[in-house]
Amino acid sequence: MTITKNQRISEDLAINWHPFMQMKDFETYPPKFITNAEGLKLFTEDTWYYDTISSWWCNILGHRHPAITAALKNQLDTLDHIMFGNFTHLPAIELSTRLVNITPDGLDRVYYSDNGSTAIEVALKMSLHYWLNKKQPKKTNLLFFNGSYHGDTIGAMSVSGVSQYNQVFRPLMFDATGLPDPSIDESKALQELENKLKHDAAKIAAVIIEPLLMGAGGMKITSSNVLKEVRRLTKEYGVHLISDEVATGFGRTGHLFASEAAEVSPDFMCLSKALTNGQFPLAVTLTTNEVYSAFYADFEEGKTFYHGHTFTANPLGCAIANATLKVLDDWDWRSNVTMLRQVIKKQFQELANQLHFITNPRGIGSVAALDLDLPGERALFKLSQEGFNHHLTIRPLGNSIYLYLPLITSTAECEEILALLKQLLHKFKS
What we know:
Radius of gyration: 22 Å
Number of helices: 15
Number of strands: 15
CATH superfamily of the largest domain: Type I PLP-dependent aspartate aminotransferase-like (Major domain)
Distance between the termini: 47 Å
Strand order of the largest sheet: 4-12-11-10-7-5-6
Strand content: 5-15%
Helix content: 25-40%
CATH topology of the largest domain: Aspartate Aminotransferase, domain 2
CATH architecture of the largest domain: 3-Layer(aba) Sandwich
Order of helices and strands: HEEEHHHEHEHHEHEEEHEHEEHHHEEHEH
Low-confidence stretches: none
Structural class: alpha/beta
CATH class of the largest domain: Alpha Beta
């Protein structure tokens, strides 16, 4: 007996709880049952959709990239999983070497975890533990920028300024200090940071930032000067800088890493998502030998960093990441990102000129966003659902919609996506 698509969806809704979704909405808008994927497209039994958000910002090289798929298959022939505490393996050694060589100078130590949130947790815990090991136990406060988002574990939420995602968990969160949103007023944000450091540096462990692009807060863009000044101030006042490049790493902004735009090197850099092209859960926190040395001691001194995950440095994930980085290294992806930026910028500006409800067209690299002022309850959610009828995957952030296109997107694909988006938005102009 053939099981239909609708039967499969019913099975799903009877047992699964989907992330960041009000499950009751599925009564009206059931989830799409994806059967396969290729390149930029997701396929169901009877239609397809452009993956315009790169499957939650991960998929930079398209789905089922042949080189990455081959790397996974090859790795399965030798080693699938092993605990990384007592053992090591070639894929992890090769990946760590690659990352140290391509990230900003000074990031010479690699700590593995599973996802972006845990990469942030590692950085936060390392910073706090570092100061404790350095006999400065009062340095426990953490500074973040309002409008930022760093993940959904307790530590990551504590240093995120997007209340929509974390407000309900406030009783569980530790104290951290929010600074003004730099995407609104860069000068004010930097001035507040300097004032805080000037008076309280002895109590501050680290400042965390999303460089150039504040993702979940609404695809808000900041200049490289913000990162440059934050680095200058944290160095001056002896405070760690944590750079959250989970969303911006590996070409998204037109730079391999956003930190390159400001020519700075943070004390911690957190990477995930595109690291494996979204084909395996893997994350890294890179740090300096200075941080590492504070933990290197006789066991009896109690300086060991107690943090780890079952799938830390999983060989399959490391092999996939190595393949992803090799593809990037062998391909002129920067030229393609420049093309995408030019095509999208022109079309977004035209849309803003044509439709009165569109404001603030903006973008960086292969990422672009629009703010929409539409009447009616949950108008953007309804627009996103209508998007499926136009072969588009749209996930609004507040009053914004965005494109987060894979780096491999061709000119023809980009123009088709923009044409479909234009058709969709014009349906809402009345």
